[in-house]
Specification:
Elements lengths: L2 H10 L4 H19 L5 H20 L9 H21 L1 E3 L5 E3 L21 H17 L3 H9 L5 H8 L4 H24 L1
Antiparallel strand pairs: 1-2
Helix pairs in contact: 2-3, 2-4, 3-4, 5-8, 6-8, 7-8
């Protein structure tokens, strides 16, 4: 099956995204490890998961044209994210109490809330879209599905999530949760509109 045929199948059924995930993960992780040997395996997995979600979001956009192989596209996205990580790591300094603080412009948004914003309309289509999006995130792998379900359904605190996932501090946990929520929101909007 060609990559273009696979993209057409993904447009019709997001379950095929799992096929892309499984067939490209090892190569992408190896590519990133060669590029950045000191990046932790968890960070590499998170970056790969982000790349899969980016690919999916591009595929569901009708204007998307794949100009390389899926593997090359994912490697390119991963490379870009690794370079962004290098830039953000340069902005980190050690504080007296050994916590890392990020100076200048940072990826953490202080306006992030620890709860979901209420849905204004309780239409069934919105809930179905959210459930479908959550299932797509689960199939894509990574930590997002577990993080969101532990927070929303099991009512775990940010501190508990920080310990569970081994993040360096609660600010990083909030930032990761925020990214996951944004991914879920984008996917749900696509499902609701599609």
């Amino acid at each position: 099956m060609s990559d273009q045929e696979l993209i057409e199948l993904i447009k019709e059924d997001h379950d095929y995204l799992g096929y892309v995930y499984k067939n490209n993960k090892d190569s992408c992780i190896s590519f990133m490890r060669n590029m950045s040997p000191k990046t932790s395996p968890d960070d590499l997995n998170d970056i790969f998961q982000d790349a899969i979600i980016i690919l999916y979001e591009k595929i569901v956009n009708e204007d998307f044209q794949l100009t390389a192989t899926i593997q090359t596209y994912l490697n390119s996205v991963c490379r870009f994210q690794i370079l962004n990580k290098f830039r953000s790591d340069k902005k980190k300094v050690n504080h007296d109490n050994n916590f890392e603080i990020i100076v200048d412009k940072l990826n953490y948004d202080n306006s992030i809330q620890d709860n979901l914003q209420p849905i204004e309309q309780s239409e069934e289509t919105q809930f179905n879209a959210i459930e479908r999006a959550l299932k797509a995130i689960e199939k894509a792998g990574g930590n997002c599905y577990e993080l969101l379900t532990l927070f929303w359904y099991h009512k775990k605190s940010v501190e508990e999530l920080t310990t569970h996932f081994g993040y360096s501090n609660s600010a990083n946990t909030k930032n990761q949760k925020y990214k996951c929520q944004k991914r879920l929101q984008k996917l749900a909007i696509n499902y609701q509109n599609g």
